[in-house]
Structure formats: structure tokens, C-alpha cells
Design a protein that fits this description.
This protein is of the alpha+beta class. It is built from seven helices and 22 strands. It binds 1-hydroxynaphthalene-2-carboxylic acid.
């Protein structure tokens, strides 16, 4: 048998049904350590908690601190082949110094200087961009240039070639979300380099993907089969904004169309199936009207939120933060969350919910409702 140092140290536990701590028991435990064996009776509390108890912690990153840090990286660190992206990841303080926002989700701020390119590559990880401010960058997906502007959501499913280029005279920052931690634990990751230069002759207003797919309720007869990820590469702010304001307007006219009073919400979906935009990622936009308080809610799986506009107080677990534009916060699995706003609050959200739903592990609970 290969001898490797055991990272564990087994300790006798003396509860009613456990053996007394004797020299013989100690020898047995030392031999378990040498053989890399761990008895269940010393671990059960950790492995089988009565409900999810995430190592990830609720945490807030302020845009007012993230953006200057990214801009400084823009002065000091070039972007190119090898490093691939000037992306700076949110590292949850409960996850041991890994660049993981939650056990399944990666979130980063990415920054591109004027006339810079981020080289072409592809990976199995599902990704998206969301833009909280600025414009001028095109993300080029399989040769299709897609303009990025404030409020746009740009999904980018695994194994598609992609690079970014800033065609403007100003720097631009945005956030990236990916399922990197999930695919890393699952040993499912592949990666390939493409050209170092992002090739595109045009910078069109509308991508080919939008010209084919961005017509609500209409589907090309040549594309009737459902695809696992959305073929639409940009969900524009103008539509998201209108969908949310119309929900609130209909509510004001007496229709029960909002999630709860004053809380409008939409999910970004794959137009070929009506399901989430990618197999592992769920993305939504939430709008709270002024003077709205949400219910206290929790679910299995983790989320990252970015404040798009407005201000409010966010409670996650037992921490409350006052938030403003661009701030990012993490909601770990089965931690309660609640939002309160006086002047109105717009929030972008992404989560790993499709993974748990597909595996029949998803549960949610709203305070005041039966469990
Ligand atoms: C990536 O390709 C992007 O394309 C962003 O912008 C973040 C993090 C790890 C690996 C690949 C992008 C990434 C990434």
C-alpha cells in the first residue's frame, strides 16, 4: 500500500454509545490514520447536519473598492495569452482562500483598457457577463461580436470560442459569473486556446444571435429543437427594464403578477426551452418598488447578487448591510435573506439552482409559510 501522511487526527469521543478512551482504542485510531481510514462515528455530525450548513459565509464586496482595485490592475498588469483575462475573483472568507464566491460559483470583476483585447479561448465552464456601468467592449462569441452596455446580460455557454475587445477610448469593467468551483470539484473541466487576437471586422449594433433570436414569442422554423444552453447572446436592458416596470404597473392596476407586494422579478430563459439560460446557472433580475420589504426567504444552493441601482438594506443570515450601486454580496445555501428599501432597489442575481433542481435536491422556505 502507498504510504502517505494522513492529514487527519482521530480523537476518541466519549458519548453514551462510544467506547472509553483506552490505550487499545488509541492504537486502533493510530492504525486507521496510517491506513487512511476514517470511521463514520467520529464524523457523522459534520457529514450529516440536520440542514445545509455552508462553509461559505455571507459577505459583501463594495463596488467603490472593487472598481479602483481593478483600475489599478489595469495600470500594472497587462492582459494577454497565458493570464487570458484581467479578472479579479471574489474569494469567500469561508472557503479557505480559493477564488470561489460560493462552493459552486465564481464571480469576478473584469477590466479592459481602451483598445485592449482579451484573447480567444474556450472552456467547459458556463459563463456570463453582466454590465453595471459603461460600454465600449464587444464580446466576440464564435466570431459573432456582441456589444456590452449597462444593464445587459450576456450569457456565454461552455465550449464556445470567445474573446473580448475594447473598441472605445475608455476603460470598461463588468462582472463575470461562472460555474468554475462546481466543475473544478467535479473534475469535469476542459480548456483550449484560440487565436491571441480577437478577429472581427465589424462592431455591429446587433449581433447575429440577436437578429435570429431576439423576437419575443417567435422562433425560426429551422431551429425547433431545444438546445441545452440559450442561443441568444445578449438580453438587453431595455427589455428587462420594461418587463419589470410593467409588472409593477400591472400590480398597481390590481393584477397579482408580482412575486410579493412591490417585488417584481424576471428570470432570463433559454428561448428554445423556457428553462434556465445554462445547465448549471440561473440568472434573474429583481426590482423592489420604494418602501418595500421582502419576506424572509431561504433555499438550497447559493446565490451572488449585484446591486444595479437604488439603495437598501440587505440581511443575509444575521448580518445586515446598506448597499448601493455595484455592490456584490453572497447568500450561502440555506441562509435566510431579506431585502428592505425606502427609495427602490434593482438587483441582478445568479445562482446554482438548476443543479439542485435537476438532482431533486432543491428546497426553499419562506418565513410564515408551512415548511
Ligand atoms: C474567462 O474566460 C473569462 O472569458 C472570465 O471573460 C473569467 C475565469 C476563469 C477562467 C476563464 C472571460 C474567467 C475565464
Amino acid at each position: 500500500m502507498t504510504q502517505v501522511a494522513s492529514p487527519v487526527r482521530l480523537e476518541a469521543v466519549e458519548t453514551a454509545d462510544q467506547p472509553k478512551h483506552t490505550a487499545e482504542l488509541d492504537m486502533l485510531y493510530r492504525s486507521f490514520e496510517r491506513q487512511l481510514l476514517i470511521p463514520l462515528w467520529t464524523e457523522i455530525g459534520d457529514l450529516m447536519p440536520p440542514h445545509p450548513s455552508s462553509r461559505a459565509l455571507p459577505h459583501l464586496w463594495r463596488w467603490s473598492e472593487l472598481l479602483p482595485a481593478a483600475a489599478r490592475a489595469g495600470e500594472l498588469v497587462p492582459v494577454g495569452r497565458g493570464g487570458e483575462r484581467r479578472a479579479i475573483a471574489l474569494a469567500n472568507p469561508g472557503l479557505g482562500g480559493r477564488p470561489f464566491a460560493t462552493p459552486t460559483l465564481w464571480a469576478a470583476i473584469q477590466y479592459l483598457n481602451p483598445h485592449e483585447d482579451a484573447p480567444v479561448h474556450r472552456h467547459t465552464q458556463n459563463a456570463f457577463r453582466f454590465v453595471v456601468e459603461g460600454e465600449g467592449v464587444w464580446t466576440v462569441v464564435n466570431g459573432d461580436p456582441v456589444a456590452m452596455r449597462r444593464g445587459d446580460f450576456l450569457p456565454q455557454a461552455g465550449w464556445n470560442w470567445h474573446g473580448h475587445l475594447n473598441r472605445s477610448d475608455r476603460p470598461m469593467a463588468w462582472i463575470d459569473g461562472l460555474d468554475i468551483p462546481f466543475q473544478s470539484y467535479a473534475d469535469a473541466t476542459f480548456f483550449e486556446y484560440g487565436p491571441a487576437e480577437v478577429e472581427t471586422l465589424e462592431s455591429p449594433e446587433r449581433s447575429r444571435s440577436e437578429r435570429l433570436w431576439a423576437h419575443p414569442g417567435l422562433r425560426p422554423l429551422t431551429h425547433l429543437q431545444p438546445t441545452p444552453a440559450t442561443p441568444l447572446l445578449a438580453y438587453r436592458w431595455e427589455y428587462t427594464d420594461r418587463a419589470l416596470s410593467e409588472q409593477l404597473a400591472l400590480e398597481a392596476e390590481g393584477e397579482a403578477v408580482t412575486l410579493e407586494p412591490g417585488h417584481a422579478a424576471v428570470r432570463y430563459v433559454n428561448p428554445t426551452s423556457g428553462s434556465d439560460i445554462m445547465p448549471t446557472l440561473r440568472t434573474e433580475f429583481h426590482r423592489l418598488a420604494p418602501d418595500t420589504e421582502t419576506a424572509v426567504y431561504k433555499e438550497v444552493g447559493s446565490s451572488v447578487f449585484q446591486v444595479f441601482d437604488g439603495t437598501g438594506d440587505v440581511t443575509v443570515g444575521d448580518i445586515t448591510w446598506s448597499v448601493e450601486r455595484g455592490d456584490l454580496f453572497v447568500v450561502p445555501s440555506w441562509q435566510q435573506m431579506r431585502l428592505v428599501t425606502e427609495h427602490g432597489l434593482d438587483l441582478f442575481r445568479f445562482s446554482d439552482a438548476p443543479i439542485f433542481e435537476r438532482l431533486h435536491l432543491h428546497r426553499s422556505h419562506q418565513e410564515g409559510t408551512p415548511s
